[in-house]
TrEMBL record:
Entries under Pfam families matching the protein: GFO_IDH_MocA, GFO_IDH_MocA_C3
Family membership: Belongs to the Gfo/Idh/MocA family.
Coiled-coil ranges per UniProt: none
Name recorded for this polypeptide: Oxidoreductase
Domain Gfo/Idh/MocA-like oxidoreductase N-terminal residue range list: 59-177
InterPro entries named among the record's database cross-references: Gfo/Idh/MocA-like_OxRdtase_N (IPR000683), GFO_IDH_MocA-like_dom (IPR055170), NAD(P)-bd_dom_sf (IPR036291)
GO molecular function, one term: nucleotide binding
Span of domain GFO/IDH/MocA-like oxidoreductase: 189-311
Gene from which the chain derives: LOC125543600
Native source species: Triticum urartu (Red wild einkorn)
Amino acid sequence: MEMVLAAAANCTGALSSNHAKTFLKSRRSSVQMRDCRSGPAAPLAVSSAAAPEVPRPVRLGIMGCGSIARKVARSMLLVPAADVAAVASRSEGKARLFAADNGLRSGTRIHGSYEALLDDPDVDAVYMPLPTSLHVKWGTAAAERGKHLLLEKPTAPCAADLEPILAACEANGVQFMDSTMWMHHPRTAKMRQLVADQDTIGDVRFINTMVSFLANEDFLQNDIRVKPDLDGLGVLGDIGWYCIRGILWAVDYELPKNVVALHHPVKNQAGVLLACGASLYWADGKVATFHCSFLTNLTMDLTVVGTNGTIHVTDLVIPYEEKSAPFSVDSKTNFAELSTGWDPHPSKHVVTTDLPQEGLMVQEFCRLVQGIRDAGVKPEGKWPGITRKTQIVVDAVKASIDNGFESVDVAS
């Protein structure tokens, strides 16, 4: 039986800030009404409970015009809390073309350098889809200028390089978030409830993730993800990041005790990983495995196995459809009589959303920024903590590959 779980995105606040101010002004002004029975005009009593002001949108700057930026820019246009204020590239012409091609408003400012974007006083936050090798320099610079930071993954070449970025964000009171989009889909929250439910899933004992796609020859020769000086982690940093995040998500971000890379990874001539995997081990006996590849058919699987049940997802990173996402649950399953089948059958679930997951990511990022800017709340520490742990495990897998597939202890 298929269950449809409506999880509509919060799309309130669609008024522009100017319209909202006009609306509120009209609400607050006294209204004169003539009573035909008493003659003179009398002021109509106005309720003291004025409508709440719509928070001012977060003014976002896009730093870099790569292909992933097009997807995120589209989502920004869907989120009332976001305003794409500026776009920057190393070429002003490229930035201008990006703005035109992606339907950004005519008032979007165009910058021909990253430095100019960071110096723009009308930018509150920066979305940074630059090559990983540039993240330390520009991520740190953004935070030091007081810009909140939404950073593409992998967030750094290694955990040691991530630390200056996170430290700069903390020192300057700005929000940090990486752009692992599936984390913000309402399906993920629903699955989290079930994983935490002892009766449904029980104690998690095994996790497996597989993420891959068949890259064409142009990708394998020219994409930044296969260039050692741009994204030296290759497939491990790109889609291996999703595998590792999925595993950590399933165990509520408990770091494994040790990691052992799988033998026979595939590298290109420059030594960049094109396919690899690893096994992760916890002190209490939990085990996880993952495989990621640029060389095999499109696959985005996550399986979480507990003592009482199992969750299966087959489109983890990018759902089959933008506004609905399925998963299945086997709970307290056994063999049918004479082992002729399963009893009960898996339950199928579909979680719907009005906004695509990248829009929900932008919406949550803007909500946090608005809280810091408008209410003086502190940045949410959950997101940099999750990023740090993901990067630590990526490092451990890379170290095991580099050291002949030896077991690598994971720092706490």
